[in-house]
Amino acid sequence: MDERDRRKAAEARLAELEGKQEEKPTPDILEDPEAYAKRLKDDVNHGVLERHFDSSEYRARKAHGDNAVEDAIGVFNEMVKADPLLAKKALEHPEPFDFVIDTVKAHKRVEDAGGVEELLKTERQRMRAEIEAEIREELDGKAEAKAKTRESLPETLAGESNKGERTSPEPDEPTLDDMVTNIEDAPPPK
Question: Which of 35, 40, 118, 171 lies at 20 to 30 Å from 64 by C-alpha?
């Protein structure tokens, strides 16, 4: 019930603001074709923009819930009073209501942290902890691999030969023995 009341109040405010705007009469196409074309273009752009905002609001409400969107709009309106450029940024954003929600969330994070400097300090500490954990994990993995390698080696190599296994590679060309053998088996020349 409270949500409906807020929605009706917002719609009433919007209607009141729209009512305050004076509706300029549409210029006559024959008397001032340029003004008529501009008015037509403005009307179309306004309709497209309204549709864009409506669909953005719908997606935001579906993703975040009605209460979250309403709360974010209230906080964002207060933020716009302090920084009017936020409204322009929201209008230019591809998803204006997501911009509003993300901006309010970021604002709350800064407030909860106690300011930008404190938030940065906290984020640096969090990133440092993550990096240290990754490095520890990597070093532990290397130490584990080294221990496995040590376990696979014999305790002593005293009884082992340092020569290794001696095998000669297969020759690409025939050996002298092969040539002599082949000559003896070959038929006599004519």
Answer: 118
Strand, helix or coil for residue 151: helix
Per-residue pLDDT of the chain (190 residues; tens, 9 = 90+): 566 676 666 666 666 665 555 567 777 777 877 887 888 787 877 787 788 888 888 888 898 888 888 898 898 888 888 888 888 888 888 888 888 899 999 889 888 888 888 888 888 999 999 999 999 999 988 888 888 888 888 777 777 777 666 666 666 777 777 777 776 666 666 6
Q: How many CB atoms lie within 10 A of CB 37?
A: 12
Domain ranges of the chain: 26-113, 116-151
* Residue 115 Cα to chain centre, angstroms: 25
Q: Of 13, 15, 1, which is closest to residue 74 (Cα–Cα)?
A: 13
pTM: 0.48
Query: What count of other Cβ atoms lies within 10 Å of the Cβ of residue 80?
Result: 17
List phi, psi (to 5°) of 23. Answer: -80, 115
Q: Is 119 in contact with 106 (CB distance < 8 Å)?
A: no
Taking each continuous run of H as one helix and of E as one strand, the counts in the chain are 7, 0
Supply 138's token pair: 């990597």
